[in-house]
Amino acid sequence: MAVHELVPGVSSEEGARVYIVDDDASVRDSLRELVRGMGLACECFASAAEFLEARPRQQGGCLVVDLRMPGMTGIELQRKLREAGDDLPLIFVTGFADVPTSVLAMKTGAVDFLEKPYQPAELRACIRRAMSEDRQRRRHSQRRSDLAMRFANLDEEERAVLELLCQGEPMKSIANRLSISLRTAHSRRASILKKTHARSREELLGMYVELNQLEGRVD
To answer: What are phi and psi of 93, to 5 degrees?
Structure first.
């Protein structure tokens, strides 16, 4: 059964917490105390399968997982998370490290790979780094979602005007290229500004460029 630990008086951002997955109860207890000492919320699980069953996708944080466990290994858990589109940062800890496995773990997205015995300060630094990475990822995801919603209601004609605005075309040129009147071009631009809640052409273009960057469509 998972053990849920919340530090009184400490509020993790948007329910973010440290997830600990290890089949050794004494290790789970030790890690739980370390995390509590950092003022962070945590949950402990005795197996990867138990974690996957309980994992709420909307919660952020990071995962501290033993590499070798009965049943599903840490690497297999990492693979299942990625296949499900879950980008939760992982920190592997193991007493049986080997170079190929550690390289594989890092290549497939692990934040850190610690070999036992490690210093508590090392793990604390890894957790802080992973939590920071997760907060940044979640902020980017929320911003991308917010921007996408602003542009979602544009119709095809408005998108045509938007694309030309982004190319720096003046309104008269846009009207000519789309074979519409200048008045109609201005009307569509006004509608775009209203739907996206942009206060100016410059703000509109800035938001559109940012959205494309967040979605990986431009460098």
So the answer is: -125, 140
What CATH number was assigned to the domain covering residues 153-214?
1.10.10.10
Which DSSP category does 17 fall into? E
Q: How many CA atoms lie within 13 A of 219 on its CB side?
A: 0
As given in the structure block, the two tokens for residue 175 are: 């009207």
CA 203, 206, 211, 214: dihedral to nearest 10 degrees? -140
Instruction: Please report, for the chain, the start and end positions of each structural domain, with discontinuous segments joined by +.
Output: 3-141, 153-214
Model confidence over 88-126: pLDDT tens digits? 899 988 876 665 666 666 666 677 888 888 899 999 999
**Confidence band of 155 (pLDDT split at 50, 70, 90):** very high
Q: For residue 35, give the nearest of 102, 95, 124 by alpha carbon.
A: 124
DSSP string, 35-95: HHHTT--EEEESSHHHHHHH--TT--EEEEEESS-SSS-HHHHHHHHHHTT----EEEEES
CATH code of the domain occupying 3-141: 3.40.50.2300
The 10s digit of each residue's pLDDT in 189-205 is 999 999 999 999 899 99
